[in-house]
Amino acid sequence: NEEESRTLVARVHALEQNVLSSHQHLNDIVEIQDIAASDDGEAAFTAATALGRIYAALWAKGLLQRAKTDTADAAAQQVGDWLRDQYRKYTAQLRAQLAHSEAPVQVAALRLLLQMLDKEGTALGAFPSEGFQEVVAAVLGGARSSEHLLRALAESYVNSYDDLRLHFYRSVARLASPDYDPFAGRGRRHVRGEPVSPAFVQNAHVVLGQVRVREAGAALWVAQAASQNKSQGPSQSKSQGGAALSAAAHTRAFSEAWLAFLRLPLTPDIFKQVLLTIHKRVIPHMGDAKQLMDFLSSAYEAGGAVSLLALNGLFTLISEHNLNYPQFYEKLYALLDRNLFHVKYRARFFRLLEVFLASSHLPAYLIAAFAKRLARLALFAPPAGAVTAVAMVYNLLKQHPSCMVLIHRMPEYDAATGEEIVSSDDDPYDAAEPSPAKSCALQSSLWELETLQHHYYPNIATLARIFNEPFHKPQFQLEDFLDHTYATFFDSDTLRKPKKAPALATQPPAGLTRAGDALGDFMAF
Predict the structure, then answer these.
(1) pLDDT in tens, 39-55
(2) pLDDT band of 354, cuts 50, 70, 90
(3) pTM exceeds 0.85, yes or no
(4) Average pLDDT for residues 52-64, to the nearest whole number?
């Protein structure tokens, strides 16, 4: 009840004062920790906070540090060992609270844990990387980690302090790849041991997506980590402290964390979300972006929507990092199918397709194959996809005049009758051929555009008739066609003001029946 709770809170404050006032009352720490583990929420929180102040004072006085020599007093060593054991129990209690059912309790436990790491690191003169990794493992691996806890870790701590950001990346790399060594040289192998939990994959993706890259002028959480400890060698001090301020160390840790994360068994949703942003959030900050080649290549070869999403990252590697990807256009050609016009990433794909096919150094047979495939698919595509395909074909012909033969090839006529010879084998284009070079598209014609001129939707028919005119008009802005849907077409047609009133009945009827009708002779209305 409330009275018992107030009694426990008062007891905690009294015990705290006893411990802080005299070392003779250190045993009272055990009672406070028992209260912290009780079911009384208010008393437990008060006890946990009091223990934080107690251990902060003990770290400042040096009572929790190990003796540097073997000649220290045996009794003092025994007290130090006992205090460190109680401190480990306390931090274990706090890590258990990270899985509490209430988000405020989780956030409070995280705050106390990081405060303890601050005091520990300040006392030892080095960042407590092992303790921080245990915190990261508890947060990311917890199936009950709340959104507030993950946001607090990313926004309140990792994004605000350089040393926390650096060691967060290293912790993720270690947890995802147990053999990871942040100080090892290049060429090390990553062989995961036990598979990580699905909760770790989900939470790691959330926090990695919220963590920003290092900015100049950021602070340090453990202030002493940046200073050289006189008792350590120069190389060890540099690795522990100077790395937190080194841009190269952050870039390396960022790369290792993301590479380790991408090797995990990602769910389909996380896999797609990573591909959506990898070209903006990951590749520009990698030390060697080509290390992502295997990940993006396997995604590109997966087919379907995953291949469409992998195009952005793969294009960035090709254009900015000189990646040589064999048979790139053959696989891009294979992505053009009926399903393309029904996925939500259609606009993203056509933006990239326009860039990929814009080079004037591409052979004519390749451009002809893409134009022919787009025109053929437009016959079966919904109106929103058909207008995009027609505009794309027009732009391809404008950019590559060598393919104009596709709309200028004349049919054959019978010499005797003068009639056009039509047979089922007239079109040499092979739509089932996966290779653009063997599809014979350049020997074909874009007869599909003639068919589209009779489309049931008049806007598409009007757009297709542009191929009957001289090619004097500029290229279409593809962005004007990418966002069309049935809803936008309906709105544009219903909101359009007619130029003249539609034809209606010219003479309104005077009655229900006309004079002389049989019904009017027998009934009066």
Answers:
(1) 888 889 999 999 999 99
(2) very high
(3) no
(4) 91
Q: How would you label 459-477 residue by residue, b for 16+ Cβ within 10 Å and e otherwise? A: ebeebbebbeeeeeeeebe
- Three-state DSSP class for 172? helix
Nearest to 455 by CA among 424, 419, 489: 489
Dihedral pair phi/psi, residue 503, rounded to 5°: -70, 125
Task: Determine the Cα–Cα distance for residues 404 and 445; give it in Å rounded to an integer.
Answer: 9
State how far the Cα of 387 lies from the Cα of 484, in Å rounded to an integer: 9
Tell me the β-bridge partners of 385. Answer: none
Torsion angles phi and psi, residue 423, rounded to 5: -145, 165
Q: How confident is the model at residue 418 (pLDDT cuts 50, 70, 90)?
A: low
Whose structure tokens read 């245990």?
A: 134
pLDDT at residue number 422? 57
Residue 316 · residue 285 · CB < 8 Å: no
Report the C-alpha gap between 192 and 96 in whole angstroms: 26
Q: How far apart are CA 411 and CA 212, in angstroms?
A: 61
Quote the pLDDT of residue 274. Answer: 94
Closest CA to 481 of 312, 321, 351: 351
Would the pLDDT of 62 be above 90?
Answer: no
pLDDT, residue 188, reads 39
CA distance 505 to 516: 22
DSSP state of 398: H
Grouping H, G, I as helix, E, B as strand and the rest as coil, residue 469 is: coil
pLDDT over 60 at 241, yes or no: no
CA distance 212 to 210: 6
- Confidence (pLDDT) at 180: 52
| Rounded (10°) CA dihedral 361, 363, 368, 370 | -70
Rounded to whole angstroms, how far apart are CA atoms 466 and 453?
9
Q: How far is 309 from 62, CA to CA, in rounded Å?
A: 55
**Contacting residues for 255 by C-beta, under 8 A, at least 6 apart:** 286, 287, 288, 291
Kindly state the tokens that stand for 1. Answer: 């009840």
Q: Is 460 left (phi over 0), alpha (psi -120 to 50) or beta?
A: alpha
pLDDT of residue 484: 87
What stretch of H or E contains 489? Answer: helix 486-495
Give the integer Cα–Cα distance in Å for 490 and 210.
39
* Spatial distance between the Cα atoms of 208 and 171, rounded to a whole number of angstroms: 12
Cα 35 from Cα 45, distance rounded (Å)? 9
CA angle 498, 502, 506 (to 5 degrees): 150
pLDDT value for 343: 85
Cβ of 134: how many Cβ atoms within 10 Å? 17
Q: What is the DSSP letter of 291?
A: G
CB 264 within 8 A of CB 176: yes
